Amino acid sequence: MHRPTVAVLFGGRSSEHGVSCVTAGGVLGAIDRERWNVVAIGITTDGQWVPASADPSHWRIHAGEMPSVVAHGGNVLPPHRAGDRNWRVERDGVVRLFEQIDVVFPLLHGPWGEDGTVQGAFELVDVRYVGSGVLASAVGMDKQFMKTAFVDAGLPVTPDVVLLPGQRVEPRRQEIEVLGLPVFVKPARAGSSMGISRVDAWDRLDRAVDEARLHDPKVLIEQAVVGREIETAVLQTGDTVEASPAGEIVTGGDHTFYDFDAKYLDETDVQLKCPTDLPGTVRDTVADYARRAFAAVGAEGLARVDCFVGPDGSVTVNEINTMPGFTTTSMYPRMWAAAGVTYPELVERLLQHAMTRRVGLR
Question: What distance in Å separates the CA atoms of residue 22 and residue 264, rounded to the nearest whole number?
Answer without folding.
Answer: 10
